[in-house]
Amino acid sequence: MTPLAPMPFPETSFALTLVLLLLAPVAIAGLALVNVGLGRSRSAAQSLLGTVVVISTAVIAFVLVGWGIASGSDRDFVILIAGKSWDWAGAGRLLGMGLENAPAREQLVLLFEVLSVALVAMIPWGSGADRLRLRAGTAIAAVLGVVVFPFAAHWTWSGWLAQLGANFSMGSGFVDGGGAGAIHLLGGLAALAVIWIAGPRKGKFPREGLSTAMPGHNVVYVLFGSLLALVGWLAWNMAGALLWLNAAASKLVVVAINTVLAAMAALLATLLVTRFRFGKPDASLCASGWLAGLVTSSACSAIVSPVAALFVGLVAGIFIPLLVELFELVLSIDDPSGAVSIHGAAGLWGLMAAGLFAPQSGQGIAQLQGVATLLGLMLPLIYGVFWLMDRVIAFRVDPDGERLGMDLHELGGNAYPEFVVHRDESYR
Amino acid sequence: MPAGFFLTISAIVLFSGAAQRTAFVLCGVAVEAMGLVVAVRGHMQLRSENR
Question: What is the pLDDT of residues A30-56, one digit of tens each?
Fold first, then answer.
């Protein structure tokens, strides 16, 4: 029933996918650098250490438990509704048992999903910068790795969403080769839940006047991290095309070109929008635009033409700076890393655009169903679980810790001990 | 928001025609969007009370 078992996977594809997956962690490193740069200097070490910790937690939790749900096989939990089978959950290996004897493709799928869950876990961590405690970030990562991501991954890549095409003649089913939905939209929704539960940084939204600007402490990190992310993203999208969409090796160059075009169109669009709105280009928003273009490419790069990929990136680049402003000034969402816009909104747009520009009829409605599932089912689930967790282990650091900075409070030392600490303008 | 999701699922199961299915899935997404707006407004209200 699932596309996993009968699919031929030649040795050349195995080798190529493995090499690509070994490059994919560069995207994680790039995003980690972006998150650090967008936070404050007094929380930089906690941010980067936290990234490593949440990644480790999520990956271990996923391999031990989540992989059982996420994996697809002919033993999956299937419900029959209206004469059609609905594959809701995998019944795979717990504790990673027997993995060494598993088929080569299954091992590659695990590696792809291990990297994916790491990325999902670090997205909300970036949004909780400067106030989210390390133990809270670790607990969030564990929940994402055990329950939330495995279901999303299973539905997207081998379960009922992937089978919408075969079961209900909806195009090729929900298509998400690079993980715009199962990774980025899911991570963006988790980030939104964390922001709502942890609340804004102290002084961000004063009683009177507009919100206080809290710019990132190192825009060089942000821009260099964005460049690094491109390398990882190219590998990620190509590996996803090979694994989930059965792309031929000759198709991979187009995937790469589409990825690059989407990112660069988004960057230039953001540059122009910020130049028009603020008189000068905004470097950190341009990096956000670039990343948003990459996120859209995760959904589109393997199934649309280069011109369509460029258009999708262009649109993302236009709406990202406006969304960042809207979220902060109108909706009081304090998102230091911009994850809700970059991963959430751009992921959503990418998935919808993949439906609009894909050649198969019915693809649009399949994409819409995927988005509706992640938004309508996953966001309430994530929010509910995080809300309960917050009752047990408070997400937010105490006011004294926030005043000191997360580095001193949680790690006992600053990332930049020789630097003069700035007077905090937000405490008025 | 979950109500919107179940509406989209129902649309897939109950309708075979593309137009009907699309219309009901769009309705489900609209219900989800309304739920999201309520959630956002609820948190904005909470935020302004806590300032």
Answer: 999 999 999 988 899 999 999 999 999
The β-bridge partners of A80 are A85
Return the DSSP state at A197: H
Tokens linked to A127: 């949004």
From chain A residues 307-336, the ones with a CB under 8 A of any chain B CB are: 331-332
- Whether A375 sits inside 8 A of B2 (CB atoms) is no
Under DSSP, the state recorded for A251 is: G
Substitution target in A212, A377, A386, A390 with the highest count of B β-carbons within 10 Å is A377
Please count the structural domains in chain B.
1
What is the span of the domain harbouring residue B9? 2-50
**What's the rounded Cα separation, in Å, for the pair A64 and A95?**
4
Nearest to A372 among B22, B28, B40 (CB): B28
The mean pLDDT values, 10 residues at a time, for chain A of 428 residues are 52 88 94 93 92 96 91 79 82 77 86 95 93 94 95 92 86 90 95 93 79 86 95 94 87 94 96 94 94 94 93 95 91 90 95 89 90 94 95 90 86 78 54
DSSP sequence for A222-280: HHHHHHHHHHHHHHHHHHHHHHHS---GGGHHHHHHHHHHHHHHHHHHHHHHHHHHHSS
Asked if B25's CB is within 8 angstroms of A199's CB, the reply is no
Among B3, B26, B40, whose Cβ lies nearest the Cβ of A331? B40
CATH class label, A12-201+214-403: mainly alpha
Q: What are the structural domain ranges in chain A?
A: 12-201+214-403
Q: Kindly state the DSSP code that residue A174 receives in the 8-state scheme.
A: S
Number of residues written out for chain A: 428
